[in-house]
Automatic annotation (TrEMBL):
Keywords: DNA-binding, Transcription, Transcription regulation
Gene3D superfamilies (alphabetical): Homeodomain-like, Jelly Rolls
Domain HTH araC/xylS-type positions: 141-239
Lineage: Bacteria, Pseudomonadati, Pseudomonadota, Alphaproteobacteria, Hyphomicrobiales
InterPro entries, alphabetized: AraC-bd (IPR003313), AraC_XylS_family_regulators (IPR050204), Homeodomain-like_sf (IPR009057), HTH_AraC (IPR018060), RmlC-like_jellyroll (IPR014710), RmlC_Cupin_sf (IPR011051)
Protein name per the record: Helix-turn-helix domain-containing protein
Transcription as UniProt keyword: yes
Record-linked SUPFAM superfamilies: Homeodomain-like (SSF46689), RmlC-like cupins (SSF51182)
Length: 250
């Protein structure tokens, strides 16, 4: 895409599964939108928005009267800094503060009356991204990036904390405050997300995928996926391929 697309949208009571090569932000105006973003469930409603990073699979549905601001943003740093976008991978839902809500109210009123110029939309986007970036701790981004880069081997919380320049106890507090989970839980979730992506997109054996994503063996990955998703890795792969076939024939 060549630029930012911002518009008011309403959704039907149905589930649509898809992904796209640009970032998308969905902000509430009226009603609620249920979403699943790479197996993370949540709801966009009063006080909560979602940042869907480029390439992430997501499904959504809404009930009753609803209206949302939807911003489609190119992946270039000029629109959303890469480092900031990365912090939303795995943690897409965010709390809307008073400053951010003011920007939402302004844009909803303007979009309801008229088409905005490219300059006005770009100015709004800059203010909005700035309001979001103030709510994302750079040390969390560093920790998550370190986890992704080293997920195939055994890494401890002390090593992750050292990469961020904080103590293990401070790292734990940052994760709890920002993401609502411990660093260990985030690492386990990240490894499982990577396994899902490899199952869906490659023909690697399940044992190889387990090794590449830091699981001790195939059985460990199977146990983790059963606990999280209620299915085995083999079933997940079959379901993912069926979903791709269904989208292709739709």
């Amino acid at each position: 895409m060549n630029g930012i697309c911002v518009e008011l949208r309403s959704y039907a009571d149905q589930v649509n599964l898809h992904r796209h090569d640009y970032h998308q932000i969905v902000l509430p105006c009226r009603g609620a939108l249920d979403l699943e973003v790479e197996h993370r469930n949540g709801q966009v409603s009063q006080g909560v928005g979602v940042f869907i990073a480029a390439g992430e699979t997501h499904a959504f549905s809404a009930r009753g009267k609803n209206r949302f601001i939807v911003a489609d943003l190119p992946v270039e740093d000029a629109f959303v800094p890469t480092g900031m976008a990365d912090t939303f991978v795995g943690t897409p839902f965010f709390t809307i503060g008073a400053d951010t809500q003011g920007l939402i109210d302004f844009l909803e009123a303007r979009l309801a009356r008229e088409d905005l110029t490219t300059e006005a939309i770009s100015a709004w986007n800059g203010l909005f991204i700035s309001s979001l970036s103030h709510r994302r701790d750079g040390r969390i981004h560093t920790a998550l990036s370190f986890m992704r880069a080293h997920s195939s081997r055994s890494i401890g919380i002390a090593e992750i904390a050292s990469a961020c320049g904080v103590s293990p106890s401070r790292l734990h507090a940052l994760f709890k405050q920002t993401l609502g989970e411990s660093p260990h839980a985030a690492l386990s979730r990240l490894r499982l997300d990577q396994a899902r992506q490899l199952l869906a997109a490659t023909d690697l054996s399940i044992a190889e995928i387990a090794a590449r994503t830091g699981h001790t063996d195939q059985s460990a990955l199977t146990r983790r996926m059963r606990l999280s998703d209620g299915i085995t890795p083999g079933q997940y792969r079959r379901n993912a391929r069926l979903a791709v076939t269904a989208r292709g024939s739709a």
